[in-house]
Structures are given as C-alpha cells and as structure tokens.
C-alpha cells in the first residue's frame, strides 16, 4: 500500500471519528442549553415564594424527650409525635453488635469506596454502602433490622404508606474539625409547597456510636416542616447565617437509636469539636411515600433539592424488600421504577400484592422528572410554574429543539454513516485481498 493511500485512509478515519464526536457532543450541548438557559429560569424557585405559601412558626418543643417514641406507645401516638414535630426518635433500631460491626465496615470502606456530595465537605466523608459488596453482610443485617423493627416499621407505614420506596442509603463520617453546617432543609420544592406535585419523604439518621453535641450531633427545629421559617429569626447579612435560631435540640442519642425526620424539617449537622472523641459515623436512609396507582399519584415526583445518594443496584427497592435481599436481585430491582417486575414477592419471601408494589418504586433519576415538568400546566395555585409558564413559548422552543436534533441526526446519517461505510468496506476488501494472497 502506497504512502498516499495510507494517508487518505487515516484522514478518512479521523474525519469520521471527529464527525461522530461533534454530532454527539452537539446534541448533548443543545439539550443542556435548552434546559439551563430556556427552561432553567422557569424552574427556578425562590425562597420568597415559599413565604407566600407558608407562614413562619415557632418550634413545637425545646425538649428532646417529647420526640422519643417509647415501645409501650401505640402506633397512633407515635404518628402524632412525628406529625406534630416533624421528627421522632426511636430507641434501639439497630442492635449494639450490628451498629458496632457496621461502624467498622464504614470506617474501613471510607478510603476505598467512591465519595459522594455532602454539605461542608472538609473532614466529612460520605459513601453509599450496599449489601452486594464483599464482606458487606452487616449492611444486609442492618437493613433487615430497620425493616422489621416493631416500632419504626409501623411508623414509616403510617407516615408514607405501605412499601415505602428507598431513595437514599449512605453513611456520613464526621471527623474532628468538621464545621457546623448551615440550617437548611433537604428539599426546596416539596409536598409542603406543592402538594399535588411531589411525594412526602423522610430520612432516618442512625448513629453507629454514642453521640454527643460536641461530636456534631444533628440539630433540628421541631415543627418547621410545615412552615416557611422559624418565627422572628432573620439572616445575618454579613455572615449569611442565622445567628439566633431557637432550636436547642441536638439528637445526642445512643448507638443504634434512630431519629426519623421529614425532609422539609429545618436541621443541620453540628461541628465536631471534641478532639478526644471518635469520628461520628451516621447511617442515613431515606424513603418516599407509596404511590397508589391513581392518576393523581402517577404525576407526583420526588422532591427537588435533596441529594439522592443511592447505589444504582439498589434502585427500585421498597422497605419490605430489606429482609429478603439476595445477591442476584440487584440485577432485576433496577427495572422496578419502569414498572417492570421480573420476580414475584414469593421469590423474595415477602408478602403483599404485586399490583401495589410497582407503584411504590419511584424513579431515582430525578433530573429527568425536572426536565419533563416543563410540559406540565399549572393545576393549582401552589404549582411552582404558576404565573410563569408560557405554554406557547414552551411548544415553540420544544419544536425548535426537536427540529435541531432531527437535523443533526439527518446530517450524521447522510455524512457520517457513508464515511464509516467507506472505511469498513476498505477494511473488508483489504482482508479479502490478504486472504487471497
């Protein structure tokens, strides 16, 4: 083969590859541009709007004892505690041995597993453990104890409905020197502000060692899950912090106890200032309410703003799956959010009706929901697109985006594909020639 032919062939291969990359990146860039520059401002939710929808309110209690659900209390009393304060403390959810073993597992896994986002990251670490890793039997044991606890499980069922969806499962380690987080909610747009659009969510925090305030125990403002903010509290413009928050409760609870709070509750992780204390390792587990399969429920999404830290192999699980997980199941559970169920409850040892199970599996890829929301029409005064949504403009812009994507695809198939075809044919002819020789 002459040098000229080799040069031409290399040039064709380079141009074909370059054309393919440009087309793909162009399509991605177009979608990102449309989302961030055209629809992004429409989706923006400013804090001032929450203040128009909800009032400020005082905290409902300043005593942690009011949040503790005792074993002798009824399910109705436990629900009333959570409903009033937006939080409840349930003792001994994990056994001491399980909490101790899980702590050792997380401590060992921190430098080995992928780190995910956490507020105020310095001296904080966050991983997403699963029961599918080597030597992770303790993770499965902890999940089983959570799902079968005689007080916690009925409370979750009463708050979220049966078969609540798992939406986050992570462990956060706070070492000495970790700074206090700002007071915040986990969600921005939520069922409290948009009741017809989003599902309710709760988070469990389970410390894996005894925890004190100096170790950075979680601080909460009881009752603020239904409010705009705490009454008579204003932000310091210089520090951008709330200096006079009347929220004295820190969940300084024992190893294996659980605090369950609504994701709309104002809270923060404290500063770890005790140099003689061990790292504070906490298991975070979040659930979303069941979807009953009605037309109204079908439109509800996960709340916006929360970090959904969940390994993809655990997508589509409900709390009822926790005790019965087997290593092969992650291959099928990721199809649950699509409504595809490839094994029955009898295969995993669980009970219940398969028909209502699939509705409990909420999609974990929340960004898609955010993009699809642009096509919704405001149906109530609390809708976050009210007074901003321009249906005609959205249709015109969407049509332009579709035409642009079609044009790119057309250009690729009429220019890129023939180029690649030419390269492949040249390769085939060359191989045949070598075979004949």
From TrEMBL:
Q: Which InterPro entries match?
A: Fungal_Metabolite_Diox (IPR051961), Phytyl_CoA_dOase-like (IPR008775)
Q: What are the protein's UniProt keywords? A: Membrane, Transmembrane, Transmembrane helix
Transmembrane as UniProt keyword: yes
- Pfam annotation, one family: PhyH
Q: Where are the transmembrane segments?
A: 12-34, 401-429
What is the protein's name according to its record?
Phytanoyl-CoA dioxygenase
> What species was this sequence derived from?
Amphora coffeiformis
């Amino acid at each position: 083969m002459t040098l000229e032919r080799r040069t031409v062939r290399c040039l064709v291969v380079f141009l074909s590859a370059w054309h393919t990359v440009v087309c793909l990146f162009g399509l991605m860039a177009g979608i990102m541009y449309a989302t961030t520059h055209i629809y992004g401002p429409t989706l923006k939710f400013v804090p001032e709007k929450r203040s128009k929808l909800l009032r400020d309110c005082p905290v409902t209690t300043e005593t942690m004892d009011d949040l503790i659900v005792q074993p002798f209390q009824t399910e109705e009393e436990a629900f009333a505690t959570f409903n009033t304060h937006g939080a409840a403390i349930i003792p001994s959810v994990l056994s001491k041995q399980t909490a101790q073993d899980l702590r050792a597992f997380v401590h060992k896994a921190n430098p080995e597993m992928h780190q995910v986002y956490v507020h105020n990251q310095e001296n904080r670490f966050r991983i997403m453990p699963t029961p599918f890793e080597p030597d992770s039997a303790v993770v499965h044991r902890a999940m089983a104890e959570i799902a079968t606890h005689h007080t916690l499980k009925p409370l979750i069922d009463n708050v979220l409905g049966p078969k609540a969806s798992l939406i986050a499962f992570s462990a956060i380690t706070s070492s000495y020197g970790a700074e206090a987080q700002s007071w915040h909610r986990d969600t921005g747009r939520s069922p409290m502000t948009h009741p017809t659009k989003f599902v309710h969510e709760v988070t469990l925090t389970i410390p894996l060692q005894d925890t004190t305030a100096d170790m950075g125990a979680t601080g909460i403002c009881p009752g603020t899950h239904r409010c705009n903010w705490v009454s008579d509290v204003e932000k310091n413009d210089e520090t951008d912090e709330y200096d006079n928050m009347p929220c004295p409760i820190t969940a300084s609870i024992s190893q294996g106890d659980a605090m369950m709070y609504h994701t709309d509750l104002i809270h923060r992780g404290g500063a770890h200032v005790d140099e003689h204390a061990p790292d504070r390792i906490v298991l975070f587990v979040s659930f979303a309410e069941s979807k009953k399969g009605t037309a109204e429920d079908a439109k509800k999404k996960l709340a916006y703003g929360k970090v959904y830290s969940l390994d993809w192999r655990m997508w589509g699980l409900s709390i009822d799956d926790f005790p019965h997980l087997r290593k092969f199941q992650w291959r099928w559970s990721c199809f649950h959010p699509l409504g595809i169920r490839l094994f029955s409850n009898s295969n995993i040892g669980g009970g219940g009706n398969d028909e209502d199970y699939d509705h409990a599996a909420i999609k974990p890829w929340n960004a898609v929901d955010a993009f699809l929301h642009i096509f919704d029409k405001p149906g109530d005064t609390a809708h976050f697109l009210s007074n901003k949504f321009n249906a005609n403009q959205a249709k015109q812009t969407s049509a332009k985006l579709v035409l642009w994507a079609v044009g790119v695809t057309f250009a690729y198939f009429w220019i890129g594909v023939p180029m690649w075809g030419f390269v492949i044919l040249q390769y085939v002819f060359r191989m045949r020639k070598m075979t004949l020789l």
